[in-house]
Write a structure and sequence with these properties.
single chain; about 230 residues; alpha/beta; six-stranded mixed β-sheet; 6 helices; 6 strands; globular
């Protein structure tokens, strides 16, 4: 009996080792995929379209120093694009220099590119009847229901993180909230007519901070809202 047991032991060990080898091979074949998922950047696979408002002959609001809204739109859009790319996004911009594009041109680019989301970056000026020196804050526009959560989330995120005033979130049938191919939101990030806010708008450090914060808000929206 003892001899029989001794003879069987090597067989059992061989079976055990073979089973372990199979398990190790399975792990070796599959763990790298898990590792890639864990190391994947949060916006990998997302195409984000950024539309810097105005440009060329269309300067937009003009500040006291002669600084155009079109310039601020482009500067912040480029900074935002760089931050989104760090998070793994593919970024498409409707313009990357000081050129004029019609609203229909911009709509056509959005429809052609079929992005995951589309963001229009704008700055504005106090309207007639408003106190130019007191009107301030960020305001956000959306139109199609699919865009509402993005508009609300990004607006509130910027207000909270940057400690800026809120000028409201609005449902509005604007040319650049109208594209239905993707959630499309228009962000008006400040008022050129307010002297204090104008200083914030044109401050390079604040522009960078704004871009970083906006990119972080987009990441968080995808992780907490869009993916649920």
């Amino acid at each position: 009996m003892k001899l029989l047991l001794l003879l069987l032991c090597p067989i059992n060990l061989l079976l055990f080792d073979f089973s372990g080898a199979v398990q190790q091979q399975y792990i070796a074949n599959n763990i790298p995929n898990v590792g890639r998922l864990k190391n994947q950047k949060p916006l990998s696979g997302k195409k984000i379209l950024i539309n810097p408002g105005h440009g060329g002959k269309e300067t937009g609001a003009v500040g006291a120093t002669g600084y155009f809204a079109a310039q601020a739109n482009l500067k912040v859009s480029k900074l935002l694009a760089a931050e989104l790319q760090k998070h793994g996004a593919v970024v498409v911009m409707t313009r990357d220099d000081d050129r004029y594009l019609s609203l229909s041109d911009r709509q056509a680019i959005i429809n052609r590119e079929k992005p995951t989301i589309a963001l229009t970056i704008h700055y504005t000026f106090a309207e007639d009847g408003q106190n130019a020196e007191q009107t301030q804050g960020i305001r956000t526009f959306w139109y199609h229901p699919q865009s509402e959560s993005l508009a609300l989330f990004i607006h509130n995120y910027l207000i909270r993180q940057l400690r800026r005033s809120s000028a409201g979130v609005f449902w509005n049938n604007l040319a650049l909230t109208r594209p239905k191919i993707a959630p499309s939101v228009v962000l008006e990030l400040g008022f050129f007519s307010n002297p204090q806010e104008f200083e914030w708008i044109t401050n390079p450090q604040e522009q960078k901070k704004l871009a970083i914060t906006l990119a972080s808000g987009i990441v968080e929206w995808f992780e907490t809202v869009q993916n649920n």
